[in-house]
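Go through this chain for my students:
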Amino acid sequence: MSATPGPAADDARRDAASAAPVPPAPESAAPEAPAPVVVPPARRRRLVATLVALAAITLVLDQATKAWALAGLDEGVRHPVLGDLLGLQLLFNPGAALGLATGTTWLLTVVAITVVVVIIRVARRLGSTGWTIALGLLLGGALGNLVDRLIRDPGVFMGHVVDFIAYGDLFVGNVADIAIVAAAGLLMLLSLLGVRLDGTRERREDAAEQADDATLPADGAPAATPEDGRRDG
């Protein structure tokens, strides 16, 4: 006949169970990165051709208007077009817009070259018409002012940019500057709309789901709230 276990045996079993190691909760699997978007080669070629054409048109228009200004305007003499709001005034700018960085012409040349190289590299991933237009304008504007830095006096990399469009008493610019400003505005709009370079869009629903997932602990259970604590108490 076996002996009936007493209270002491029950206590021993409970102590042993509580002392047993608890297996760690399985870690939640990391979210898989979205697969890269592959732009069809035919569409990419069309977009790259559009970018190059737009940049070429901007460059030619910029240099043609600068040649006209050099031939028909006297330096420093203002010719009103819309009263005091808009005029024509030939100036040679060694710096950036608004007369900034006049002592670092070589640095502005390096920046322009860098912009051109970056645009050429990212053009391989183009899938958006809006980005194509923006980058085409930016490339044409950068090249327009870069040509002046390379070929005009006082020398290579130090050339002064030809400006002739006077905006009130604020500053004097050129066609390349207009293209650059238009490109910057379009890029800001595309960013606000969530349009990516490859033509895809950022969805707010995806961002909200990612934020919700970030608030969950590793075991996937919802985090406790103060109300839950009061109900449990």
Q: What stands out?
A: Residues 41-72 form the longest helix (32 residues). Residues 119 and 135 are 7 Å apart (CA to CA). The chain has a mean pLDDT of 81.
